[in-house]
Every structure is written in C-alpha cells, then in structure tokens.
Amino acid sequence: MKTDACERYLNDPEANASHLAECAECAALFGSVATKPISVQALPLAPWEGAAHRSWPLVIGGALAVLCIAAAMFTIAGVAPLNGIVHALASTIPSFTTLQLLLRYVGDGVQHAPAPLQIGVAISFLVVNTLLVVLLRRAPRGIDV
User: Fold this and answer.
1) Distance between CA 20 and CA 10 in Å, rounded?
2) What is the Cα–Cα distance from 46 to 32, expressed in whole angstroms?
C-alpha cells in the first residue's frame, strides 16, 4: 500500500471501487477476491444441517458408565449411592451464613483499601469498557461484509 488512495480503498472499498483500475498492486491483491464466487456446495455440512456423524450416543454412554462406576464405589464403601452423592454435595457447599460473612469481609476490605488502589481500579474499569465499546462499534472487514 503505497499511496493515500490505497489507504482510502482499504478503509472503504465500495466507495473507492475505481481505485482498482488505477493501481495495479491493489488490483492484483483485491481484484480477484471480488470476482471469485464462493462455491457453497463445496463446504462441509454442519451438524445441524443433516451431517451423518452423531456423537451423542458416545457421550450418553460415557456418562452412564461413570454413573454406574460411582454407584458401585458407593456400594462397595457401604454407603447408599444417593445418600453418598447428597452428602458429598452438602459437605462442599458452604452455608448461607458463611457466604454472607465472606461478602461482608470483602466489602469492608474494599472500603478500607488505599485511595490510589481504588482510583486505579476505577480508571482501569473505564479504560477496559471504553476499549470494548470502541472495538464493538468498529465495522467488520471480511467475506461477510
């Protein structure tokens, strides 16, 4: 890309379509892409379009095998399988009171954090969100434009 005309063509190809007739380098790079049609018939089928390969029986079979092995292990250990699963889940989930205390401690810690840290967090929050908005508002470039 040598000139400003090339840059203008890159930024808006439809408005500057006549540039391809003027610049041989841009015509060599972009001219063949605009005239070459895409053969949709040559693309592979996606699973929702009727492709023959289905892996769900394998997934369901694997899940059932793991469930049977777990039930056998609970039975060997002398614990009813359903009671063992309920007990394992109940012992790993903290109580609501514990979660409330944790949130209160975190809130107190944020309130007593140094002012430069609080300002830095606020500024970085604004910078990241502004960057995301700018990136999302940008016009996409590619084959589906």
Assistant:
1) 11
2) 28
Burial class (CB in 10 A: 0-12, 13-18, 19+), 10: middle
Q: Which amino acid is at 96?
A: F
| Residue range 83-109: mean pLDDT, rounded | 85
Residues 25-69 have pLDDT tens digits of 887 777 655 455 667 666 776 666 665 556 788 889 999 999 999
Q: Is the pTM of this model over 0.85?
A: no
**DSSP state letters, 93-115:** SPPHHHHHHHHHHHHHHHHTS-H
User: Buried (b) or exposed (e) across 82-115, using 16+ Cβ within 10 A?
Assistant: eebeeeeeeeeeeeeeeeeeeeeeeeeeeeeeee
Tallying the residues shown for the chain, one arrives at 145
